[in-house]
Structures
1.
Amino acid sequence: MTTSRITGEPVLKWDDGFFCRDLPSKPQTGIGKVLVTGATGYVGGRLVPELLARGYHVRVMVRAASPEYKERWADAEIVVADALRPEELATALDGVHTAYYLIHSLLLGQKIFESTDFCAAANFRRAAEEGDVKRIIYLGALGDVQAVLSPHLRSRKKVARELSRGSVPTTILRAAIIIGSGSASYEIVEHLVKNILVFPTPRWAQTRCQPIGIRDVVKYLVGALEEPATSGRSFDIGGADVLTYEEILRVFTDVLGLKRLFVRSPISNVRFLAYLASLITPVPAPVTLSLFEGRADEVICLDNEIRRILPFKPLTYREAVVRAVAREREDRVHTRWSDSYPPAHELDLRLADLPKLPRYRSSHSLLTEKSAASLFRSLCSIGGKEGWFQSNWMWRVRGAFDRVFFGVGTSRGRRSLSELRVGDVIDFWRVEARARDRRLLLRAEMKMPGAAWLQFSIRPEEGVNRLSVEAFYEPRGVFGHAYWYAFLPFHHFIFRDLIEQIARRS
Ligand SMILES: NC(=O)c1ccc[n+]([C@@H]2O[C@H](COP(=O)([O-])OP(=O)(O)OC[C@H]3O[C@@H](n4cnc5c(N)ncnc54)[C@H](OP(=O)(O)O)[C@@H]3O)[C@@H](O)[C@H]2O)c1
């Protein structure tokens, strides 16, 4: 068996690498249906396979249907519902025993995320009461309940209060930052320590925090379901260490074997530093800002009651980082913060569902003797660390503009170097459809006056294969039309190069 170069542990395939193996509680599969909301998100995406592996009847709630979900959660029931639409929640909660509430709208940005989160929680509480749900389990955030908190922590607290105000017994698990491959906090720290040689540390870098590994979060979530003693109560969950934010950076630096200098910084403007962090890391500004705003709030466990009910040894911060780095290097990142949709995304706007094809289209193709399988493999590796081949700089310039104007930019990268599933992000695109060895359809999520898609297709033609790329664009307003014509001259170089490189590298 292969062993990890980093942890020295056997490399397990995702299917056999479950987190809950040493959980002291026993599966309660007789309880009936368990609903997981936020299943497309970072935490929910890790929870679903664990519940399925323990034999639960899982219903997964998503906001947009996709054929790929049936493949991803073959043993689960899938229901489409938006927490902001109460009538859809009634169907989602029908016949459910326990519902996990893992919804949040941080990506919507400062102005509306708090009210949106509250509205979603209020709808959910009402629907759970009407649907006779027996339990709700919510993962919220740590933070002194008496203190004046940052908008993010305050919003999590309001959601907790709203959910537990109803008649359905609600378990609240409160966590600080979650460390695991693909988590936003992990990627922020990782990119900061990799890209900054001298760290200006403001005074708030001395605030204490108790990070927790994603595997321990999932264990507590599953354990809360299996231990009735957790019903209707609130628990603080944390990893084995309490560290300052500076120590969090230092330990990470040490794990990566890097040398970095830490110097006291007179600049402590949170908005400015969060914006800088969003430019350096793949994580967009609304998320970095929300996390940085909590800088002054100590987020440490005030009691360890949960450890008595679910006794297992949580990971230290260093162990969590080592595991996350290992998973990333082994290309085994199962879910990522970018899996949930950005604000401008119109969930229902799919190329296949449009009444007619978008107004503008430009296409390029070539004939190649390469097999369809190798062409598809090659095109599935575009973007991220691999880049966009020949015209990389043009994509970067476009991405940099996007980032400066608070868009998603090109630096979001991708979850896995080799694997692509529907919903995955590739820089500023998202996979909308995928047919093995035949087609890959990407939808643009960058800021632009319109909606754009990029479609790659492979078709057999007279004994060889035709590899094509087509750009589709539906303009919005007069700027939309101008935008298309401004970029049209570049299409020829970018797309021609792109398919030539895909064919060459396959
Ligand atoms: N990640 C952390 O470091 C961390 C730390 C402490 C606590 N937590 C808590 O853990 C929970 C889950 O966090 P996460 O990091 O997994 O979040 P995430 O990756 O951002 O996912 C959020 C999920 O919420 C869904 N969602 C958003 N609005 C919705 C709506 N109106 N109706 C239905 N679903 C909606 C999203 O669905 P779409 O895919 O459709 O957008 C997505 O699946 C949150 O309560 C958070 O406060 C997280």
2.
Amino acid sequence: MARFFITGDTHGELDRKKIGTRYFPEQKELTKNDYLLITGDFGCVWSLDNTDKYLIKEYEQRRFTTLFIDGNHENHDALDAYPVEMWNGGKIHRISDTVIHLMRGQVYNVDGVKFFTMGGAESTDKQYRREGKTWWAREMPSAEEYEEAMANLAANDFDVDYVITHCAPEAVISMADNVFARRPNELTDFLTRLITIYGIRYKGWYHGHYHKDLDMGKIHCLYNRVIEL
Ligand SMILES: [Fe+2]
């Protein structure tokens, strides 16, 4: 049976100390049949230079398979340029043998565990960023991606084990208003509707984006911790 670990934004080499052996010692017992999920802002498909290559190779050398959803701080054009493959029931971009981008609106069944994934988020600092260099309009899902998410969830009766997103449902953002200090948008509204209108069932919902470690019932904001599912 595969083991699944999950953590928040890694931002290329900036925030990956938390997945070193000091803070994530369990990785010594893992194999490539076990997984580390990163809840967006992976940041290793970014400048398409040697830094990306070095970081991806470094993940490749770890004793686990790396799965990531996209956040806002990704080079979305570069991710979109990878060929789409099917993997455990959902669409992926394979960045290298064991570094896999889980695409938006997918449901995967990995060793009997179902994951719904919905990457993307709105950058709050986009006015300070340059389009195509440090900011991409594709940070937010397209109409087709929302539709695909709904169709895949409907096919699974809105019943999964884990929901993996970069940003949080609006209801949670308002609960943690003083902590998250973000405005609702189309994507956070969509995630809220999954709960309030469609009654999505899940054991745990994990997201990143706000650079905090915070638990709100079954919804968990991840940053500097690695949790085993
Ligand atoms: Fe981030």
